[in-house]
Design goal:
The structure is a single chain. With about 270 residues, the protein is mainly α. Helices cover about 80% and strands about 0% of the residues. It is built from twelve helices and no strands. It has helices at about 5-20, 25-45, 55-65, 65-85, 90-95, 100-130, 135-165, 165-185, 195-200, 205-220, 225-230, 235-265.
Length: about 270
Amino acid sequence: MSNISALATLSKRRFALSAHTPREIIVPLLTPILFALVIAPALRDSFGGFHSTIDYLSFVALGTVGLLVPLSMMFAGLGVIVDRENGAQRELLAAPIPRRLLVLGNLGVALTVAGLQLAALFVAALLRGAEFHGGASGIAWFAGAVLLFSVGTYGMAETLASRVHSAEEYVGAVPAIAIVPWFFAGALFPISVMPGALAAIAKVFPLTHALALMRYGLVDPNGTGLHDIWNMSNTTLEAVLSLTVVAVFAALLTRVAVRAFTRSAVH
């Protein structure tokens, strides 16, 4: 069996397992939709939003992507633990295929599920009144940021799943990984309104760069979020730099995930 055929088979198997547990698709979607459809309009009506040139509902709708993706990826990582403890992972480890394909197969399914959730989020946001305007280049910036950030976040989920010994321990770590960075990354307000020390911390998070790129592509053609990070005059260069940060994050965490999975499989 070629690596491509093996990867397709592993992905099909993982997708079949995920389809039998609708919570992996529905549950991570509930909180982001709540923020986009209830909390964002309430904040906009109460305080007028935080951006004078961007509709606040649209601003937060994209910000909730930064919450949806980590939650979705962390739920996918939980499925890896279940498969290890009660599934067929041991048998798959004995198959004549590179072990990295197991990680990549899981990643492909996690990305597919996250894509379905993002589509549902955007439909809900548009029905609520959000406005997105981006040409081909804007969609490319958005898609690149989402894809790379999703890959890196799944790398964290897979690494954690390989290192912890129980689902309970894994669930206990989810808030710190999936939720805490979201409050620092400019999801609900620009990082420019944060105290200087917190703003400096926010610039370290890949999520901050990913959100700035998403907004640059769909709602913020002036690159306000990118300027808050880099404080440069060339918006395109700022976008390239932020995309590079997210790409390095994705490549590094994927490599760490494969290595962690391989080591845990040996033990």
